[in-house]
Write a structure and sequence with these properties.
single chain, 163 residues, 2 helices, 0% strand
Amino acid sequence: MQLTSPESLIFWTTIIFIVFFVLLAKFAWKPILGAVKSREESINNALASAEAARREMQNLTADNERILQEARMERDALLKEARDMKDKMIADSKHEAQVQGERMIEQAKAAIEAEKNSAMAELKSQVSSLSLEIAEKLLKEELSNKEAQAKLVERMLGDVKLN
């Protein structure tokens, strides 16, 4: 038998392939399958972790949106409260100023009235004093002369009517 014939080449190739296949199956196949399986599990774990991270990110985003919305609502409420407080303070200040203004006007009117009454009393006092002085001077002048006194008495008696 010739060693280089095509049948012997096929025979030896098949034997070598079977031996090689048995050796591979016995020594390499399990570690290769274990490595592939391990790689598949690590990929699946990574995908599961990525999915969990994505869900957690969505939850965090939703929480952030909710917190941001609550903060906006609280800010709006604080701004409204501050505006209301400002408006109330302005209204109170206007009212207080108006009340004080009216009080000052009333006090000024009372002071003016008191000054007017005081001036009128002083004027009356001066008028009555002047009237008395004038009457005194007239009476002195008229009573200094006897004839004028008699005429005055007659005239006054004539003015008096008897009941």
